[in-house]
Amino acid sequence: MAFGSYVQPLIVMIAIPFGIIGAVLGHMVLGYDLSLISLMGVIALCGVVVNDALIMVDYANKQRTREDATAFDAIHRAGVRRFRPIMLTTLTTFGGLTPIILERSLQAQHLIPMAISLGFGIVFATAIILVIVPCLYMVLEDVVGVLSASDHETPEGALER
């Protein structure tokens, strides 16, 4: 089982809009218009962003089941252990797309918007994933703790019976 609850996939999917924001900002900075090819880059970007967030949440869940760690310890370990793979994915993807983004030949003009979407989107989303996903994981844990505590409370007067 990849997720510990039905709400954890929302944590993974919340990272997608931040990647899209990065893609739009990349187009604005470089002066390109959004096009259909840009949207194809955004689709590829969504896959990479979901993968990055998923490996962090999945690792935290595995830590919680294997070692009976607290939520904080599990997500902290996930952030430390998965920082390198997430950063390597980002740097190699952006590094590989940089020559296409900087290319000025007529043949590359169709690929540049897609490369901008994927490259700038993944750089922006990575920073967000490394901060927001652990925070949301802890918020979800706090909400579950509050809800489970309210389920175990007894109504007033129940002990007097």
What does this entry show, briefly?
With 161 residues, this protein is mainly α. It has helices spanning 8-30, 36-67, 71-102, 112-152. It has one domain (8-150): Multidrug efflux transporter AcrB transmembrane domain (Multidrug efflux transporter AcrB transmembrane fold), CATH 1.20.1640.10.
Note down, in words, how this protein is organized.
- The model is unreliable at 157-161 (pLDDT under 50).
- The chain is elongated.
- The chain has one domain: Multidrug efflux transporter AcrB transmembrane fold.
- It is mainly alpha-helical.
- α2 (36-67) packs parallel to α4 and α3 (71-102) packs antiparallel against α4 (112-152).
- Helix content is 80%, strand content 0%.
List keywords for this structure.
161 residues, mainly alpha, Multidrug efflux transporter AcrB transmembrane fold, 4 helices, 0% strand, elongated, disordered C terminus
The gross shape turns out to be: elongated
Tell me the distance between the termini.
43 Å
What structural class do the secondary elements suggest? Answer: mainly alpha
CATH superfamily: Multidrug efflux transporter AcrB transmembrane domain
CATH architectural label: Up-down Bundle
Percent of residues in beta strands: under 5%
Number of helices: 4
SSE diagram, text form:
Layout: H1 8-30, H2 36-67, H3 71-102, H4 112-152
